[in-house]
Amino acid sequence: MTDGSVTTLLEVMTGKPVVVTTLLQQVVEADAERASALDVEEGDNNKLSRRCYSKRRQSSTANLCESYTPIARLKKEFRHDLMKADIPIGRIMKPTEDRVAA
Fold first, then answer.
1. Distance between CA 49 and CA 67 in Å, rounded?
2. 55-85 pLDDT tens trace
3. DSSP 14
4. What's phi and psi for 59, nearest 5 deg?
5. Which residue, 7, 92, 4, 2, is CA-closest to 52?
6. Do the beta carbons of residue 25 and residue 19 sit within 8 Å?
7. Distances (CA, A) of 27 to 6, 61, 91
8. Nearest to residue 50, comparing CAs of 69, 29, 72?
9. E runs forming strands in 12-58
10. What is the pLDDT of residues 6-58, one digit of tens each?
11. What are phi and psi of 101, to 5 degrees?
């Protein structure tokens, strides 16, 4: 029932829409651990760090999510959408016509 998107998975599990709000988004250097995980050079400063919280509408409980993306590898359109604050990454990865419906 899910495409691998954490947001979609949370919506399937709860049966309710999930709202994602970006707390912090910045381009940072890759430390040794992240460089290894992302297959980039240590110190590479083309890594997007994104911290968000997701919650069901009208709920006081939120989940903290953190992601790291080597943005230099992304297509221009994908990178542009990713840099917009509150679009869930899983929704960005869907074909454009699917994102409009979401």
1. 6
2. 766 667 777 778 888 888 888 888 888 877 5
3. H
4. -120, 150
5. 7
6. no
7. 22, 28, 21
8. 69
9. 18-28, 47-56
10. 778 878 887 888 878 888 888 888 889 888 888 888 888 877 787 777 776 66
11. -75, -25
